[in-house]
Each structure stands twice: as structure tokens, then as C-alpha cells.
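Self-study notes.
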Amino acid sequence: MDLLHKALAREPLSAKELSKLYDYDIFTLGEAAQNIRAQLYDTKVFFNNNRHINPSNICADVCKFCAFSASRKNPNPYSMSIDEILTLAQQAYNNGAKEIHIVSSHNPNYTYEWYFELFREIKKALPQVHLKALTAAEVDYIDRISNKGYKQVLEDMVKAGVDSMPGGGAEIFDEGVREYICKGKVSSQRWLEIHTYWHSLGKMSNATMLFGHIEQREHRIDHMLRLRDAQSESERVANKQGGFNAFIPLLYQRENNFLNVKTFPSGQEILKTMSIARILLHNIPHIKAYWATLGLNLALVAQEFGADDMDGTIQLESIQSAAGAKSKSGLSKEELVSQIKDAGFRAIERDSLYNELAEC
């Protein structure tokens, strides 16, 4: 039995062995991934109507890949007040957003109490909106400044009305790579512990992987396998009430940061990564081709290589666009639907937990 068939049969293989999946031609990998995708979702492509709000870019940590946080490459620091964020959330809801997605820097001026007052005020003003907030890196930072323990942070998030967690802060789990690109940030083990405990509370989250910088193929595979194991653990402890909704391979954006990467993955390398993710992550339901990092066209092509989700309208995107992505103004629902349908797929509007709302 060759390697691909062993992977499809879910045989226990190492990251080093599975990294040789990249040696297959793109069409072979794509066909295998697409067969899995078609069995699960036929020709559906999912999206949601959401709004990203980034309260601040003043950060206590210094990640070399980041172009969003205020630094000498981005000398425009800002911090929003709770009232300012509430105004943006209300405007987004008025424009059709069903999800408010809040991810910020690790701002040393925001207190523990500030975060939870923010969440309570959003849910008080917009009880019908799904509140997705705080990456595991932010949870870890809030734990560090408060000394309450990450479990208490997560329990307080539930009490304050946070509905699910985004998947940011994972970057690449290999600690050698993390030491270079995001030293001092949440460790890979703590990232996984935070999500597993969140799942044990009956809550869902996403998982990301930042790729296309200094990591090797084997590091990507190792990252996926750790997520697969964590999902199995969440299924065990959460009795299938909580877990990862989706895996999101985030393509590294090259501008305005300190990594100085000289070579970047080809379109084929990106699509192979999507396909391998679909093949290996049999227990994570969705693979998201995040158009804000891939670009709209490649994200649509990725729907032919195992991905089934595009993310959403976003309305305003600040983090990836700071590093050169063409995603600053988001997309209208009409444009996103049109692009999905023109590519030969069925456009399915979903909620944040992948309940289908309408075929558009």
C-alpha cells in the first residue's frame, strides 16, 4: 500500500513519513481530498456574514511575522474604548453581520475586567449576535497579567457571553520555529491545553496554522497531527459537545514585518497543503480557505482541493491587510455569493457553528 492510501486508511504514520505526501502531484492529492470533501458536502461552499473588530494594535509581545502591532514598521498605535467597539458592533449588525469576531493585540493597558465588561456589554446590546473572541494567545496573556489561571479566564468568558473562540495564535507548533518567529508567546502545549479545556466546557473553536515562512513541510504535518490528536481528546472529554469546527491554513503575508523571508510557497504548494489537511484531519469537519490571506481567486480554487469554506464578508480586515493582503475592505455578501456560484459551487450561508441558514 502506498503512502497516500495509508494516510487515507488512517494508518499511524509519523510527520516525517507523511511529509512525503507533498511529493505526489497536485492532481492526485487534489482528487483524494476532493473525494472526501464531496462525500461530506457535495458542491457546497460555506460562508458567513461577519465583522472583524480589532480593539488595539499596541502589543506587549513582539512577533517577527506580525505587521499589525504598533512598531517602527507600523508607527500608528491605537486603542479603542468599549463604547467605540460597541458602536462598530452595532453598525455591523445593522449591516447584516451575524457574528462579531474580536481579536486584538496583547495590550498592557487593557485590564482583566475590561475584557469581560466588553463582552457583557456586546451581549447586552446585541444578544442575538454570535460573539467569537480571544485567541488562545490572548487567553494566555490575560492569564499572565491577572494570575488567575487560563481555566478561570475561559470560565469567565463563558459567563460573559463569549460563544466561540477563533483559532489564532497557533502559528506553527514546532517550538524551534516558535522560538524564532514569536518568542515569549503562548507555547504550543498551552495553546492546545486552552482549546481542549474550552471544548470541555461544551464550546467550539477554530484552529489555524501559519505557513509559508521559515517552517518546513514536516512542521506543517506535525502541526496537523497535533490538532488531530487534540480533537480526539476533546471528543473524549467533551462528549462531542465541544471541539474544533474548522482548520484554517493561514498563508504568511510578507510585507511590513521582521522575518525577511525571501522565498514563498507556490500556488501548487498552497493547494497541496489544503489537500493534505483534508486527507489527514478526518475528525475536524471543515477546511477553510481564508480568502483574506489567499486572495479570493486562490481561495475559490482551493474549494476544488479539499476546502469547503471561505470565511465570510469580514466587512473590515486589519491584521492580514497590514502585511500586504488585499482584504482591507472585506467583501459584500452579494460579491462573495456571486464568486462562489460563478466557480460552479453552491453558496451556503452558515452561522458561526456551521448550521446552514440559506442557500443563496
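Second protein, same conventions, sequence then structure:
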Amino acid sequence: MATDAKTEKRALRAEIRQRRRSHGELQLAEHGEELSRHLQGLVAAHGATRISCYLSGEFEPNTRPFLNWASTQGITVLLPVTREDGLLDWVVSDGESERPHELGFPEALGELLGPIALGDADLIIVPAASVDTSGYRMGWGRGYYDRTLGSMVGCPPIYAVIYDDELVGTVPREVHDERVNGVVTPSGTTRF
């Protein structure tokens, strides 16, 4: 069954990548502003002063407007840095320092705080390919977030950022897949 889930995930990820590539620049800019507004509301609802987020890549839902807003509000933002052991390390965002990762996504530069730094966050914002209505998140297949979130005790609320059509009835699941507390899409926030 795990092999079937892996095959289903691979096909679904390819379909989602193709759909995301078809979004025009104007649509992506509009979605980024809408996402920023909803993420700001989420931060306010949780009274968050220290959050983790990610640097969005070219075809991902755009977190950049939100990250710019957070820096003007004095919110501490932890950005992920991949580790060879498959976990994520964290750096405090300075709003500028990044490099392209060998796997194609942008990665922050800065002083590494260690994986345990995530435990001090009030809110965790993660990327996803798709999320189902039960809160199961399907990532991009590298497992960084599943391993990191699965290793935490007393995890703060976790929200995935996706496009509206990526919230579906069910996603293929494997035993290591982690759930999220909700999703943020251009049209709003859904809590599970």
C-alpha cells in the first residue's frame, strides 16, 4: 500500500506542478497579496510574535509580501535551512540573505540556530503541494517538514499555504505524513 501511495503522490505532485506553472504573473501577484492579508490575520489571531515560515519559490504561493509585512511589524521570522540528516535547521530572517538550493527552492542564509529553535515559535507556516479536509499535508516528497514536525513535542499551530484548488477531499497518505491545523489560501483560512 505504501508503494501505491508513493505512486499516487508522484502523479499528483506532477499535476500540481503543471497547474502552478500555468498561473500568470498578474494572478500570482494578486494571490500573494491575498495570502499576505490572510496570514496577517492568522498571526493576529494567535498573538504570534515569533513564527516560522518559508521563502516561496517561483511557482509556489507567494509568501514574500507576508514576510515583508512581518519584518515591518517586528515579528521574528524563522526560515528553514535543510540539513544532511533530513531535518530542518533555522535562521532568523534578515529579509535579504538567500541562495538557491540545489533542489531548486530558495534557502535563507544566516546564523544556524539548530532544529530545536522551532520549539520557540508561536505559529508554524509550511509549504505543501496539497492538503486534504482531514488536515493531512502532502509535501513535495523530500520529507523535511514531516521529519521535523514529527520530532516535536508540544508543537505550536501549523498552517500550510496552498492555492484554493489544492485543498481536496483526500490525499494519498503514508505512515510518516503529518497533519496541519489548517490551510491558508488566496480565498481565506480553513481550520481543521
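Instructor comment on the second fold: The chain has a mean pLDDT of 89.
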